[in-house]
Amino acid sequence: MINRKLLVTGSFLIGVLLTLIAAGCGSDNESEKSGSGKTNYSEAVDYSITGIEPGAGITVTTEKAIKKYDSLKGWNLEQSSTGAMMTKLGEAIDKEEPIIITGWNPHWMFAKYPDMKYLDDPKGVYGKTELIKTLARKGLKEDKPNAYKLLDQFHWEVEDMESIMLEATETGTEIAEVAKKWVEEHPDVVAEWTKGVDDVDGTEIELVSTPWDSERASANVVAEVLRSKGFNVTVTPVDVAVVFEAIAKGDGDATLAAWMPITHKDFYEEYEGQFEDLGENLKGAKIGLVVPEYMDIDSIEDLQPAE
Known about the structure:
Blueprint: H1 4-25, H2 27-30, H3 41-44, E1 48-50, H4 57-68, E2 76-78, H5 82-95, E3 101-105, H6 109-112, E4 116-118, E5 130-137, H7 140-143, H8 145-153, H9 158-171, H10 175-185, H11 187-193, E6 204-209, H12 213-228, E7 232-237, H13 240-249, E8 254-260, H14 265-271, E9 275-292
Parallel strand pairs: 1-2, 6-7
Antiparallel strand pairs: 3-9, 4-9, 5-8, 5-9
Helix pairs in contact: 9-10, 9-12, 10-12
């Protein structure tokens, strides 16, 4: 006959072994938990913020944030490209893995991934909301009054810019083509921009822009409208520092890409007085550190220093 005592003892030992094995398998995940049982997101992202190009306004501001916040002491800002950052964001969201990025809107990331949030910035390093301004070289109003008037009257919404960026990204269509389509589909808006603007015959004008999708969207929309009034338009994408230098020195006629009061503050102040500020062309822009909603964290100060 089978010994019942041996059966009970054997079952107990097997249960203990299975418990130990399960605990061992879960040890990697548990290492990312804090003492309270919550995920240690700082450790989970290896104390690293996924960013974009060196020299970009948000890159410079994030470097300041790392110095100002004790919670970011010892952190690394991974600088590469906007495309690389978005690839990593998509991969993380697909797997519901933690990630912290340098985010801003207008950007198609918020249209494609609506469940994203900015981390609170109690020290105000990133500011609140941003304006995107139009700057013109000195003398443009006298030299090319119709171009100046159109640029001065240009204003649109965050949703307009994001819709162009998202369509270009999802369809693989060049932003210039999507911008042309947008202009054709919004005659009432364009009519406001061109009110009182006379047609010209081939007058040349150069718009200086950054190579990012947001600024490519605005530059190409305005370029298309200028062309409809007879201008010969060139759009030149350059590094953000060169944008301000070009307008200040008169090497370009205008830019629609000045983010204020935080993102491009240093560049603006360096050349202030050497260009004409035409005011905002878009309001409600924002920059900061962004995470997916599934991350149970709300503030930069909820993070932990690396040392």
